[in-house]
Amino acid sequence: MNKRFSILELYKKSNDFLTKKGIESSKTDTEWILSKFLDVEKIDIYLDRKYIEEQFLINQIRQAILRRAKREPLQHILGTVEFYNCSIKSDSRALIPRFETELLVELVVKKLPNDFNGRILDLGTGSGAILVALAKEYPYAECVGIDKSANALTLAEENLALNQCSKNVTLSIFDWHSDVFSQKNFDVLVSNPPYLSFKEWMTCEPEVKEYDPKDALVSENDGLLDLETIIKISPEILKEGGLVALEFGYGQSEKLISVSKGFLNEISIANDLNGRRRFFFGRLIS
Ligand SMILES: C[S@@+](CC[C@H](N)C(=O)[O-])C[C@H]1O[C@@H](n2cnc3c(N)ncnc32)[C@H](O)[C@@H]1O
Q1: Does the beta carbon of 193 lie inside 6 Å of ligand 1?
Q2: Fewer C-beta within 10 Å: the chain N or C terminus?
Q3: 122/213 same-domain check
């Protein structure tokens, strides 16, 4: 005979298992998994008014908890991430969109008029998170996303469809170290490029090291090569007065400011929610 569980029983068993496996976020991860697979609110778990008898549901939850115990990121298990104004499908083809990158989008939006209808380029679009968020915010803008990873671009394509913004967005494969840029005259160049040094990447949790593509995270020259390259090629991409908006890593701001001297002005640096310098803005000198 199949066993049935109350929802709270299922929660306690799953949470205990993840705790024993050393998952620090076991409580919230279990809540997310149960609410996704049982289609309930988190509060319903604690109200404990539901019994689960369907074996396929119990198996789905068991599989999800086992995956999390092996340090697979919660976002891959749930399949989507809420990012700014959209839902982004997330799997091993591209970096999981990060919380701080939502802040980059927010800061870009603050700098553009509500009815912006110019041209936006997202360098290293990955899952398409930044691109989709901006394309939804500005349905009359022309948005372009590029990445060197063909795998990431297939995921970005699915995210455009999921968020119904394929109409004002195009994607193409491009490597900013070796390919020559043919499209010019953008009003905005936004990018969250790889910016970790190899040493920093080595200290990352297994969720990052084993499941996010390394190429999406690590850059040569102590994490600076891709950021510096993007700043240097910005005059070939932007219109005069066009905006450069970049996310960068700890301790990199002074180097970026110095690289941009002579062709970008109105340079400003913004902090993340922990008060650390993480976002670079500048405009192409007219
Ligand atoms: C940190 S991820 C950002 C992904 C996404 N924009 C986000 O914010 O979640 C950096 C992206 O840049 C891409 N990338 C790395 N080096 C590149 C290069 N030389 N040319 C083009 N894309 C590159 C990676 O494939 C990856 O998708």
Answers
A1: yes
A2: N
A3: yes
Q: How many other C-beta atoms can be found within 10 angstroms of the C-beta atom of residue 136?
A: 17
Residue 87 to residue 81: CA distance in whole angstroms: 6
On the question of pLDDT at 2 being above 80, the answer is: no
Domains identified in the chain, total number? 2
Q: Calculate how far, in angstroms, residue 86's C-alpha sits from the geometric centre of ligand 1.
A: 19
- Whole-number Å distance between alpha carbons of 172 and 175: 10
pLDDT, residue 53, reads 93
Ligand 1 atom nearest residue 217's Cα: 1
Rounded to an integer, what distance in angstroms lies between the CA atom of residue 100 and that of residue 83? 10
Q: Do 100 and 31 fall into the same domain?
A: no
Per the domain annotation, does 80 fall within a domain?
no
Query: Pick from 125, 242, 246: which is nearest to 174 by CA?
Result: 125
* Within a domain: 85: no
pLDDT at 1 over 60: no
Instruction: Measure the CA–CA gap between 153 and 127, rounded to whole angstroms.
Output: 7
**What's the 9 CA to ligand 1 centre distance in angstroms?**
42
DSSP string, 126-171: TTSHHHHHHHHH-TTSEEEEEES-HHHHHHHHHHHHHTT-GGGEEE
